[in-house]
Amino acid sequence: MTQTGSAAPADRRRRRAHVPRYAVLVVTSILFFAPVAYMAAASLAPASRTLAGFEVFDPREWGLHNYTGVASSLSSDSTGHLWRFFFVSFTVTVSVVGLGLVVNSMAAFALSRLSWRGRNLVLLGILLLLIVPFEAVAVPMFYLYNDARNTLWIQIAPFIGNALSIFLFYSFFSGIPRSIDEAARMDGAGPLRVFWQIIAPMSKPAYASVAVLTFLTQWGAFLWPVLMISEPNLRPLPLQISVFAGQLPPAWGEVMAFGVLLVVPVVVVFLVFQRWFIEGVASSAVKG
Amino acid sequence: MTTTPGLAAPASAPEDVPVAPPRRGLRRDGLAGPLMAGPAVLLLVLFVAVPFFAAVGFSFYNVRLGDPRDPTFMGLTQYARIFTDPDVSSRFLSALLHNLVFAAVVVPVQTALALALAMLVQKSIPGIGIFRSVYFLPVVFPIALVALIWRLILARGDDGLLNALLGFFSGGAFGGQDWLGSELTALASVIVLSIWQGVGFQMVILLAALQQVPADLYEAARLDRANAWQRFVHVTLPGINTTLVFVALYTMILSLRVFDQIYVLARSGGGLNEDATRTVMFEAVTSAFDENNIGRASAISVVFFVIVVVLSLVQRRATRERED
């Protein structure tokens, strides 16, 4: 009894000390969340309220008509089908993330653990490629791979091999003591087995980080699809929403409904794997 | 390098073990290395190295897509044009200027805001996870969507949310701004929406750095009666210096790459003032796409790359100096 009696005022004092911090947190959160709230409200409001100041937030007029509207607007071959845009974005993102994890971590293992002719040269080459942003090669690639326009594979293949991913894996693998895999090598395990059964399972954080970083860039990919995709049924979501918004007259309520549909899968993935998002982003700074 | 294991293995092996197994191991290694690195290396060659050298090559020719004539060699004419030919250079140089203004504003503002947010959410008090998520949430939004949301918020007249808010608080005296269309505010609007989308990323990087600063340094500073500002200047800043430099220069390179939001706002009914906001990448894409001038677009890409490399080298040097 006496203990709780003396603890309570201290607790209250500590909580009171946090009040200014909470006030700042709440105000900035409202500012940060306002555009998201606006998108959600505009997706529910009737067309006459989308661009009418605060009236968009009047819940008495909210309904799901924009969602049914976008589904029926995007349901022919000339406009592309709504499900197809999700299919394209999903296929491209999953392929790039999945294949990228395998290919880049394997290369990083070969560079950090195996000795072979030309290894140092390849390592140097990858460090040099690290500073070539995709934007610098987008235009020549648009010309070189013009025959592959309007295909699914050209949205995937260029982004599987990734110098930054290799570098992140390489840094992580180099931090694992060599004695661990050397012991396995002594027992007769081949390089592939050492990689698959020892190094890869120990490197789950690195895999999670690279997966998150690749996922974030790939789901929002815009520049490459703008250059390469004109066929409606092969458009990924970010390209399609910009095409949809460019129609005249623009149906902004439906555009915002499309936006909500586009972002809900990512937000769900983010909320479920939040820890990995945070650690993945934080680890991208190892370069510094 | 390849001989090292061969030399080392027999020396470390017990004498009664034949030399054969390590050598077999080496031969297996010799093939396993290139095979495991092969797929990634091949993809990087096809989709980064070859296009990169192609960009340099194309920039010396008047390459056009679907042109039946062979491209003719022009030497450095494309480069001379983008910098000095008034028809082309006015657009390119203004694009370069917009990138530099963008970087000059976004780098300090976004880094400072990210640091402020990181310090705000650093203390693990109840409910802090929710606030961290809210600040990070826009990072998972594709920038194309972000541009469209803000296009509506910034809509001109009294239609837009921002104008309605300003009109409400100023009693109708202020409002009706054409944020995206006006020459004065177009670039500033793009900057605001870009910071909103990107600041959470930098916040998370800086938060991780803040948590690495040893707590006893703060304790010692407190015992020395350092106030909050002194603790920030003498403990926090030195502790996260390397990360801060990384974040600032990373943001600078992102500022040079800006394209998506400009393209969406200019081309998808955004009413964006194109002349006040075009960026180098926007110029490269429109040269290639709208004018079918691959040669000039390649020259722009090469110039873009040189700027990125120069800034990356500055980053390396700055980071290394801090570490010494």
Overview of the structural elements:
The complex is a heterodimer of chains A (288) and B (324). Chain A has 288 residues and is mainly alpha-helical. Helices cover 72% and strands 1% of the residues of chain A. Chain A has helices at 2-17, 19-44, 47-50, 65-73, 82-113, 119-129, 134-144, 153-156, 163-174, 178-186, 191-202, 204-219, 223-228, 237-245, 252-272, 274-283; strands spanning 75-76, 80-81. In chain A, strand 1 (75-76) and strand 2 form a beta hairpin. In chain A, helix 4 (65-73) packs across helix 15 (252-272) and helix 10 (178-186) packs antiparallel against helix 11 (191-202). Chain B has 324 residues and is mostly helical. Chain B is 71% helix and 0% strand. Chain B has 13 helices and no strands. Chain B has helices spanning 4-12, 20-58, 77-84, 86-120, 128-136, 143-153, 161-169, 186-210, 215-223, 228-256, 260-267, 280-289, 294-323. The longest helix of chain B is centred in the first third of the chain and has 39 residues, at 20-58. Chains A and B meet through helix 2, helix 5, helix 6, helix 7 and helix 11 of A and helix 2, helix 5, helix 6, helix 7 and helix 8 of B.
What's the gist of this structure?
The complex is a heterodimer of chains A (288) and B (324). Chain A has 288 residues and is an all-alpha fold. Helix content of chain A is 72%, strand content 1%.
Secondary structure layout:
The complex is a heterodimer of chains A (288) and B (324).
Chain A: H1 2-17, H2 19-44, H3 47-50, H4 65-73, E1 75-76, E2 80-81, H5 82-113, H6 119-129, H7 134-144, H8 153-156, H9 163-174, H10 178-186, H11 191-202, H12 204-219, H13 223-228, H14 237-245, H15 252-272, H16 274-283
Antiparallel strand pairs in A: 1-2
Chain B: H1 4-12, H2 20-58, H3 77-84, H4 86-120, H5 128-136, H6 143-153, H7 161-169, H8 186-210, H9 215-223, H10 228-256, H11 260-267, H12 280-289, H13 294-323
Helix pairs in contact in B: 2-13, 3-4, 4-8, 4-10, 4-12, 6-8, 6-11, 8-10, 9-10, 10-13, 12-13
